[in-house]
Amino acid sequence: MSDSDTLSCELRAHLSQLLAFDTTSRESNLALIDAIADYLAKLGIESTQIYNDERTKANLYARLGPSGNGGVMLSGHTDVVPVDGQDWSVEPFKFTESDGKCYGRGSADMKGFLACVLTALPKFVQANLRMPLHLAFSYDEEVGCLGVRSLVDHLNASLEKPAMCIIGEPTSMQPVYGHKGKVGMRCKVHGHACHSAYAPSGVNAIEYAAKLIGKITELTEPLKAQCDERFEPPYSTLQTGVIYGGSALNIVPQYCQFDMEMRYLPKMEASTTFHALEQYAHETLLPAMQKVHESARIEFESLSAYPPLLTDPQSEFANWLRQWSESSEFGTVAFGTEGGLFDEAGIATLVCGPGSMDQGHKSDEFVSVAQLNRCLAMLDNLCHWMSL
Ligand SMILES: [Zn+2]
Question: Which residues form a coiled coil (predicted)?
Answer without folding.
Answer: none
